[in-house]
């Protein structure tokens, strides 16, 4: 049962290191847009409040955080979630341990994943974004990736928007990243022919040797993306799982097969540009009756339970392999986030800030 | 029953005026890309051939013909249909009367619509693209428009791709054209709020006064398409029915509502450009989970019978009004086709080449 925030004995007050946003960002973010500050926190949910006090164990670095680092106008159609607040801890998915709770279904000691702060301890008041971790036998950090938001994104965007059929030709960009590595392996399980693009030869090797991609190319060393696609996918693309947008999307549009689906999960290449890339090949969608569809994971959390069981099974059976890029300490978080935008991470970028749930 | 092509008595040989393609086109087509030539034709299906000899009554001018006037490379992903053949009659939808037939379901005297030549008489060998006209009580020319390919395009693209719901905010570009005028009226029947754009004040008046659009604007006199959309559709767009592409599509993308659908039926603004317009606002489809889908009517002819009955009913009940731009004589066909690309036509562009089916 939930512990009460109203215990008589005094609650501990501890130091709480956090990553706060210093200023709103235009263009690409830098480490200097964030700073580490040290605050204190009472390790108890205030009386009368329904909330969960979480000790954060793993922070997730995800490209979409960039969007929340900017100041948006009211009604801006590009907004994904509310802007971060200057001087306050940034917010994202993470894994933690419950220290105190007045939530009826969460109790001290529970391991949880969901929306928390970029800090050592967070008083989570929007408890609907926290879920109990059901597979503690797997590495907890997986709940920032393959078993968390990126995994659910890969699963629901690929199957619900991409609608793959056995034998389909699938192209995945950012293919070794948190989402892409899962998409490629799900596509193989679904019986597709899968090609990935990534930004280094090391990542291309990972794609072929570790994740089972049928073919892969390094987009940085190709002079002509269209030629690379024609070489790796001579019969065209049935499903393009797009995480990058821009020139890669433009080349893929030219190369889609009749009735193809472009599942657009992100456009990381478009962050920080003064003017977005102009996509010139969109007219191809008429002749080929192609569907291009934007994805937001918020609409798919109802699939989570089914997804978690299926994915945990694949991991245990060795059908899905996970590559993480784990750095230690909350001080590493700003650089790890910035690294995403130049592709410095190899695999899912995680920041481990504590390995134990003891306060 | 079908008449036979093997009758003993001699068949008439008559003059056959036709519009032929003189040269393949790059950029915008001109009248000089076509010429009128006079040939002769035997008014009988050759012995042993399954075909239909049609006297053409109405030719349809449609933007998609532009695509067939160019020489495409093998495997060009933008191709909609085979290139026209230099020196031969151009091909498109039309209305005609059967003069002779060896097709089991068509007989001399039948009125038909479908794929025929831009000439006075055509020996139609691909008879699967001819259909009998079931509503002879309506003007025959309607089978080039509201009851033909453009009508079926409007109906199936709007309902199957646009998936309108009652109360939805619908935006239609090229809104007074052959397809747009039908879409707007179907949207009103479906209980939507409908705004159209067109290229002259005269057309804007038609939209509001004749087709029942709730609001409309002249895109040529607006300095900011986004501002025009915000003014006419302050709550955004649920369904954008796109026939123009380019800057209008870009502005509409910024203004889509969550879960909106962009049904892309054509991109007439993109014909004749050296380089296609670069669409910069595609990233909006992620935050708003918008679907952008290309349409080709070829996949929807199975809906024709249902469509024809429904549409004929709307016309008879006065729920759908038709505006045609009919010119007389096959000599007028090249100029009428060219006029589409500058928006010279008001309503569906038709060329009447004979009002009687007598040879």
TrEMBL record, chains A, B:
Q: Where is the signal peptide?
A: none
Q: Which UniProt keywords apply?
A: Oxidoreductase
Q: Does the keyword Oxidoreductase apply?
A: yes
Q: Name one GO molecular function term.
A: 2-alkenal reductase [NAD(P)H] activity
UniProt entry tagged with the keyword NADP: no
Residue limits of the Enoyl reductase (ER) domain? 30-351
Q: Which SMART domains match?
A: PKS_ER
- Which top-rank group of organisms is this from? Eukaryota
Q: How does it assemble?
A: Homodimer.
Name recorded for this polypeptide: Putative alcohol dehydrogenase superfamily protein
**What species does this protein belong to?**
Zea mays
GN (gene name) = LOC100383885
